Amino acid sequence: MHATRPRRPVAAVPVALALLLAALAGCQGGKGASSSGTASPTSTGGRGHVLAVKVDNVAAARPQSGLDEADLVYVEQVEAGLSRIMAVYSSRLPSTVGPVRSARETDLELLRQFDRPTLAFSGAQSKLLPVIAAAPLNRLTPDKDPAAFYRAQGRAAPHDLYLRPGKAPRVTTGVNAAEDLGLRFAAAVPGGRSVTGRTVRYPEASLAFTWSAGERRWLVSMDGTPARTADGARLRAADVVVQYVTVRPSAYRDKWGSTSPYTETVGSGSALVLRDGKEYEARWSRPSAGDTTDFTTPDGERMTFAAGQVWFVLAPK
Q: How far apart are alpha carbons 315 and 207 in whole angstroms?
């Protein structure tokens, strides 16, 4: 069963051109457009308007702030084999999120699953900036909205930039961002196998999720160390989706000359869904960038999730 998002036709054009065309269509009265260029939260039949924040995920950036209050947490591979986080908020907003870091091309395709979301980020590779400007999203950056950001004392740059969502323009509606994706919180599908945990490895980073029967949550570890909030509490997930994807070189490089990887989230493939101390084989499918991602059992039954925070780990095939 496919989520209730109208499909856009698939065109064999580069990502940058496709995003530019989408932005131009929005300016001419496309989905979620308004005269001010900012989407109305109710312009798409009640679908939530979300805030996505790019969050640093190297050792010097930990512990991060605000991850525990996200509806959804995405993890993707970046340069040098490291990982970076995109936290998605809508049902509630933390007082602080960060450290905030730069955006990647992968984020633009991934965020097409939401109706004109707001993306908070510190900057991007210079050649990528016009592509971000053309994307169907609202940009939230220190130069555009300086009152929403601050530099934290005791943190070394570039791991010191933080967002105060409460000082940003109105960006959410209080609806869980999982509803935008069509995720179904319900009793588990039949089957699954009991597991104590699962580890996902990138070339120079890893994430591990260990089941806690007492807390009924998956406890998160990063690079072999328990992941905690700024207040010292463990990061915990109700569900973990390990989505196996193609990771290939993009057309962009960072300032040190390293090629940025591009994670393909349109297409189909295999996945693992962790919930309630079990691991379920799954399939994912997203026909076009205008569609949301469906997760089903190998028999084609719609996958269900336990209520709570969902982590999506985009893992190389």
A: 10
Residues 1-16 have pLDDT tens digits of 444 444 333 333 344 4
Neighbour count for residue 204 (Cβ, 10 Å): 14
Query: Which of the residues in the chain have pLDDT under 70?
Result: 1-48, 171
Alpha-carbon separation of residue 151 from 41, 133, 312 (angstroms): 30, 24, 28
Nearest to 152 by CA among 246, 25, 60, 233: 60
Give the 3-state secondary structure of residue 64: coil
Cα separations (Å) of 260 from 74, 83, 265, 269? Answer: 17, 12, 16, 22
Can you tell me the distance from the alpha carbon of 159 to that of 64, in angstroms, rounded to the nearest whole number? 10
According to DSSP, the residues that pair with 228 across neighbouring strands are: 234
Q: What is the pLDDT of residue 253?
A: 75
Q: Count Cβ neighbours within 10 Å for each residue of 263-294 and write b for 16 or more, e otherwise.
A: bebbeebebbbbbbbebbebbbbbeebbbbbb
Identity (one letter) of the amino acid at 82?
L
